[in-house]
Design goal:
Layout: E1 3-4, E2 6-7, E3 12-16, H1 34-56, E4 67-76, E5 91-97, E6 102-110, H2 114-125, H3 136-139, E7 142-147, E8 167-173, H4 178-188, E9 197-198, E10 203-209, H5 211-219, E11 224-229, H6 246-253, E12 256-258, E13 266-271, E14 290-292, H7 305-315, E15 328-330, E16 333-338, H8 353-367, E17 373-377, H9 391-401, E18 415-419, E19 450-456, E20 470-471, E21 477-478, E22 499-502, E23 507-508, E24 515-516, E25 524-530, E26 534-539, H10 541-559, H11 565-574, E27 576-577, H12 580-587, H13 592-602, E28 606-607, H14 609-613, E29 614-615, E30 619-628, E31 631-634, E32 637-640, E33 642-647, H15 652-658, E34 662-670, H16 685-688, E35 692-697, H17 704-713, E36 743-751, E37 760-766, H18 769-772, H19 776-779, E38 783-792, H20 800-822
Parallel strand pairs: 2-30, 12-15, 13-16, 13-17, 14-16, 17-18, 18-19, 19-22
Antiparallel strand pairs: 1-29, 3-33, 4-6, 4-7, 5-6, 8-10, 8-11, 9-10, 19-21, 20-23, 23-24, 25-26, 27-28, 30-38, 31-32, 33-37, 34-36, 34-38, 35-37
Helix pairs in contact: 1-2, 4-5, 7-10, 8-9, 10-11
């Protein structure tokens, strides 16, 4: 019997959680002779000052504060040192880690601060009787300084432009100095777009220039922290058409029922437009819900991609429904925003799909501001910097959290579903052995979005001419279209994709083992944009998977309008399971690192709408939507503030009856961060996120007091060491493996008896840029999160649900009795 998920909001209590000041300082782990090391660094700087004007740029009259960029490099595996002294004007620009594992970066040093930096290095090298040298944390890891070149500000994965060809550049600037860039560009005569992307520590401006002009611009301002190429294309797949099947469509129309409420949510497709004339779409897509980021583009779909996704979002694969007599009740609407220009129109300018996406998001919200919606973005382009935030992915993180709105009570948070991107066509079996090299496409690295990969159950080829061919993937395996993030560093990048939906399969030519895309029997049937000629089309790859995911998310919102977007995201993960072949691969791995690498290919499994919506007697979800204040200002410092402690209404009696039966416990924590794509964010997630949250479960045999004491002890532990502090070996992935991103999931699989006393759970904060802010209205903000605790005992007769429900009812009654006594 299906039942509503159980709410556990009332079982959370707040406890103080303060990170004490660290002691002991940095140990000299690099074997430095401090005096000699300081002299070496000062000698490097002297050369850098001498070389800066001639080596990097031909300097001319600057706009803003005169200065130079200095590059630095650390020892292997060293953390990024802090070389910022903002009062003196020293600012960290670009930063990253090279192939040797060294942190590399660039610092803007005003001419007036050269002596200041020399003095700080002199002080570092002086003898001291204390436990640490002066500014040891800033300098001890640095191997060398040098004069910076333009390439040292380049953080794009593609080669930096050369030659005379002009194009759009992304100039990531310090917000308080963007006006200097504009003034210098005007003096040189370089076009600067009026469009901006604004983040807490960066403002992205778009300049049209060649490499020589860009060097001249950067040399004459104090504004530019990073340089990247502008974006001007998006890759997408268009399905092949099928023969006209008007009779199927007419019969299917008789089965469709409009079950929408007055507040029905919408699936908003940010794509190539939708052809509303299609009979399977028109009833769910009002004319007023068709939009375009430019009026002269029109709203119709002239390539087919958006119309195909619309059908998949509403109906899924039409192959079975068209042949069924089962009524179809639709409880969601469609919206469409044409994000890309049609054929014959110039590409979006400036070349930033982040700006275009934010503009697209605003259009349906202006038209229907009170309508809940899920945004589906199935367009992407190859990632050029792995998990590093791009202007596109950061803009999506910003829109999801509505981070541009200061007052958190006035924020309108949004759920984005993004396609993971597709492994290129034209590969063969040998090339697919390097599957991990095909990384998630931009903007799928966005922390706050759900990134959707593909699996497939389509492994039967029915075309007579291809009957002797095989398929690239077997039943219930990862789709050969799906990109992965296995090469991304587990501690600083989120798990992508998070979920898998049907994406179709590729056929394999037995002659040369080449892979073929788009075979009808290995694809999904959906609506086509050429209604009068080919109303049914086929679709495949992760675009199709993302559309199905958006449909599921919207249906969860329709089922319970009180769910937050963060909760919908968590419930979809709660409702996911690995297919048997996938689960067997996890169970064959003993180490957390190996299991996490597999999760970066397979996500957390394939979701089920039924499990996401409802609980069963022995397979249930406990849901909480809560707010917490992670940090508090204490005088001039900002400290950790509180953690949430859940005394769960645990089914102890039922678990005892199950005894040695296997039980799966999954905990999912979902929240939206405010992004801050600053220079050091790729090396330190705490600089990108506004705050972070973690969870932990009481261990077997651990008392409540011991558990709370252990959690408070974590307040002294840096994020990177959390997996080593009281590590729980029973977890499938472990704390460190699931530390990056804003969606954290882990599992315990064990005998039911081992879970009997694990009835306490903590949600606690870790650092973020809110904690580093000097503004009390930022550092003292409330943060909200969604928590889903899943208990799955499989096919057993014990009723876990009823016991938990009774315990919740007893707690409510006790609260009511206490209220009467107080009165």
């Amino acid at each position: 019997m299906l039942r509503p998920h159980l709410r556990i909001d009332r079982f959370a209590s707040e406890a103080p959680y303060q990170r004490p000041r660290g002691g002991g300082g940095n140990r000299n782990t690099y074997g430095r002779a401090f005096g000699q090391h300081a002299e070496d660094l000062k000698r490097d700087l002297a050369r850098a000052w001498a070389d800066a004007d001639g080596l990097l740029f031909q300097r001319e009259a600057p706009v803003g504060e005169p200065g130079a960029y200095v590059a630095f490099e650390t020892a292997v595996d060293a953390p990024l040192p802090s070389l910022e002294w903002k009062r003196e004007g020293l600012r960290l620009a670009a930063a990253g880690r090279n192939d040797e594992g060294r942190a590399v970066g660039t610092v803007f040093v005003p001419d007036t601060a050269r002596g200041f930096l020399d003095e700080k290095i002199t002080g570092y090298g002086a003898q001291t009787t204390g436990r640490t040298q002066q500014n040891e944390a800033r300098f001890v890891a640095i191997d060398r300084f040098s004069a910076a070149r333009l390439a040292d500000l380049w953080v794009d994965g593609r080669d930096m432009p050369e030659g005379d060809a002009s194009q759009w550049w992304e100039c990531w600037c310090w917000p308080d100095r963007i006006h200097n860039l504009e003034a210098k560009a005007a003096h040189i005569g370089l076009p600067v777009s009026t469009d901006r992307l604004t983040f807490p520590e960066r403002t992205v401006a778009f300049v049209f220039a060649n490499a020589t002009q860009m060097a001249r611009l950067v040399s004459g301002v104090d504004s530019v922290a990073e340089l990247r190429l502008g974006r001007d294309t998006a890759a997408y797949f268009r399905g092949e058409s099928r023969a006209d099947q008007d009779g199927w469509i007419d019969a299917f129309l008789d089965l469709i029922q409009d079950g929408r409420s007055a507040t029905a949510p919408a699936i908003c497709l940010l794509d190539t437009g939708v052809n509303r004339a299609h009979p399977l779409l028109s009833m769910m897509l009002a004319a007023g819900d068709l939009h375009s980021v430019r009026a002269d583009w029109g709203v119709d779909d002239d390539v087919g991609h958006g119309t195909e996704l619309a059908g998949l979002a509403l109906y899924g694969d039409l192959t079975a429904p068209l042949q069924s007599l089962t009524p179809v009740v639709l409880d969601v609407s469609l919206e469409s925003v044409k994000l890309l220009p049609p054929n014959g129109f110039p590409a979006n300018a400036p070349a930033s799909l982040g700006l275009v996406t934010q503009q697209a998001v605003a259009l349906p919200e202006i038209e229907a501001p009170d309508r809940p919606r899920v945004f589906c973005l199935a367009l992407g382009q190859p990632s050029v910097a792995g998990p590093r935030a791009s202007s596109w992915s950061a803009a999506i993180d910003q829109s999801a959290a509505d981070a541009q709105v200061e007052n958190l009570e006035e924020r309108h948070r949004r759920l984005f579903i993004i396609a993971a991107g597709n492994v290129p066509d034209g590969l063969n079996d040998e090339a697919m052995e390097d599957w991990d090299s095909h990384e998630i496409e931009d903007p799928g690295q966005a922390w706050n979005a759900l990134t959707i990969g593909g699996m497939t159950d389509k492994a039967v080829i029915t075309e007579p001419a291809r009957a002797h061919w095989t398929t690239a993937a077997g039943i219930a395996e990862l789709s050969p279209y799906s990109r992965v993030s296995a090469t991304w560093h587990r501690g600083v990048s989120p798990v992508k994709p998070e979920l898998l939906f049907e994406a179709g399969n590729r056929a394999v030519d037995p002659f040369d083992q080449s892979h073929w895309s788009g075979l009808d029997s290995l694809s999904m049937l959906t609506t086509g944009h050429r209604v009068t000629q080919e109303p049914l089309s086929t679709s495949w790859a992760t675009s199709a998977a993302a559309a199905q995911a958006a449909g599921m998310a919207a249906r969860l919102l329709a089922d319970d309008p009180n769910y937050w977007p963060e909760t919908v995201r968590a419930l979809m993960v709660h409702g996911a399971e690995w297919t048997p072949p996938m689960l067997a691969r996890f169970q064959a791995l003993a180490g957390k690192t190996e299991r996490m690498m597999l999760a970066r290919r397979l996500g957390y499994g394939r979701p089920s709408l039924e499990r996401a919506k409802r609980s069963r007697s022995a397979d249930l979800a406990l849901v909480s939507q809560a707010s917490i204040q992670p940090f508090r200002r204490d005088g001039g410092n900002v400290r950790m503030n509180a953690f949430h402690f859940y005394a769960l209404p645990w089914p102890r009696d039922s678990l005892a009856l199950l005894a040695e039966n296997d039980v799966r416990l999954r905990v999912t924590l979902s929240y939206f961060i405010d992004p801050n794509p600053s220079a050091d964010a790729p090396l330190a997630p705490a600089r990108y996120r506004s705050y972070g949250l973690r969870f932990d479960l009481r261990k077997r045999g651990e008392t409540t007091a011991q558990f709370q004491s252990r959690i408070n002890a974590l307040a002294e532990t840096p994020d990177e060491d959390l997996d080593l502090a009281g590590a729980d070996n029973d977890r499938l992935f472990g704390a460190k493996s699931v530390s990056a991103g804003s969606l954290h999931t882990d599992e315990w699989r064990c005998a039911a008896a081992d879970l009997i006393d694990r009835d306490c759970l903590a949600v606690y904060p870790v650092g973020g840029w809110w904690k580093m802010s000097r503004r009390p209205e930022v550092s003292d903000r409330l943060a909200r999160y969604s928590l889903v605790v899943t208990l799955d005992a499989g096919d057993v007769e014990v009723d876990l649900y009823s016991e938990i429900e009774q315990r919740i009812a007893a707690a409510i009654a006790a609260e009511a009795d206490a209220a009467v006594i107080d009165t």
